[in-house]
Amino acid sequence: MSPLTDIYQVDPIPYNARAWYINDWSFPEIYSNIAAPVAEAFKELFGGQAAGLPNDTLVAGGAGPFSYDGSFCRLWLSWRRSISGPFLHPLNFYQYIDISGTDTSQWKLLKIFDTTESFLEALHNGSLKRSPLPAQEARLGPYFTDKPSLNIFSIWMERLKSACRHRVICRRATGTLIKGTWEATMGRLHDHVINYKVDLDVAGTANSLLKTTTSQEAVTHPWFNDDWGSEVIQRTIRREYITNENDALLKLPGNFQGGYSVVNQEEKIKWGTVRGYAIHPGYSPIHTTVVGSKHALNNVNWARYNLAVSRRKETEPSSSSVWNFNLPAAPPVDFHKFFDGENITQQDLVVWVNVGTHHLPESEDAPNTQTNTATSSFFITPLNYFDYDVSIDSTNAILLQAPSKEGEPFSVDDYGVRPVHCIPQAPPPFEYAPVHIFDRRGGEVAFESVEAMRGASELYHRITFGV
Questions:
Q1: Where is the Copper amine oxidase catalytic domain positioned along the sequence (predicted)?
Q2: Model pTM score
Q3: Could you tell me the domains of the chain?
Q4: How far apart are CA 459 and CA 95, in angstroms?
Q5: Sequence-ordered list of residues with C-beta below 8 angstroms from that of 112, at least 6 positions apart, any chain
Q6: Under 8 Å CB-to-CB from 188, ≥6 apart: which residues?
Q7: Interior CA angle at 451 toward 445 and 455, to 5°?
Q8: Which helix (H) or strand (E) holds 307?
Q9: pLDDT in tens, 254-286
Q10: pLDDT tens digits along 287-309
């Protein structure tokens, strides 16, 4: 074994950048050094106890990052009711604590107000402003904060060979929303951003990045000098290659007027067009909202874009690391350092694609967040990779022949491919019958033949609307 100094840009990784888990909140020192000094406040304000005992009625939680550059490990510790779904029952009580180093006996409470003493003094002399606790715990609603909260994931996809027809990558977020307190129990405004590493290898490893945009232009032709005038405003398409990594940190064009593709300039289809695969945005193609915050200074640089393209390197296996979370100022993997001005023309490339959602809290988040809107995806589809639509070569294609008489079913040729059934008795064969067409008054329209029906249904194809 050897240190992964070729992958991680920080050596050594500070101990204070360690990840914390749910069991860490039950360390004895959390109760003896941090909870014990304010035990009377827990009882007076919340009628609760947090002593590290089985009959505790309060439990601890926290939110990171816990460090900035690894020189300390500190956080605001929060407290919740120790009941089913404690994340939905936060208390408006926070302690700033120091849990730096390996010696847990040195862990300590730093402050509640200015000091713990000033807090207890306010509690004793009656100057402490108390929240209306019953109403606070009963009400739910959106909570907006300017502190950035970002759920981040980095996913490495194995090389995707270009033999597939297309691939859809879709993610749904579900679960519970951790609540905060702001005159009520409310969810925190935050982003979910998930990063995929996609290695396409389009017709080989020598690939290029193609940018395609659409816009409009005004052209004048003398033969257009009719009722509409000689000037025509029309759509135009522009294609250009991005040749430098530094220019490949990308956001999607406005109104989705264009996109990005990975192509092989040395491989062409019979029509003379370069073969490629396009990266299409699906549902909710987002990037992070907050940029420049000290909590996310350089550790989530990959989340700033919709996608990015870089040279493939064994020393850059992922866009982040498990230690990045607690090292925003000095992350072991700084995504921006992948982009150092290298040429990306006909090179082995990887695409870093982001999906996610902007989570705007709502009352329907409790007790579980919705999955229908918390969905995001992107598509990988062939772009002039094949000479024609290869779906017609599918082995389970079905050929329909129009019936000779109106109302009769279509004749079907399924090429011997029979569906597989998981029930004791197979259902009857599916019957392909002509559709029924109705006029604007609701009456059914009769046609002499299927061809006549098809001709009527295709009439709208013959009209082009100018925009």
A1: 183-391
A2: 0.79
A3: 15-138 (3.10.450.40), 150-383 (2.70.98.20), 394-467 (no CATH)
A4: 71
A5: 38, 94, 95, 96, 119
A6: 143, 145, 149, 177, 178, 179, 180, 361
A7: 70
A8: strand 307-311
A9: 999 999 999 999 999 999 999 999 999 999 999
A10: 999 999 999 999 999 999 999 99
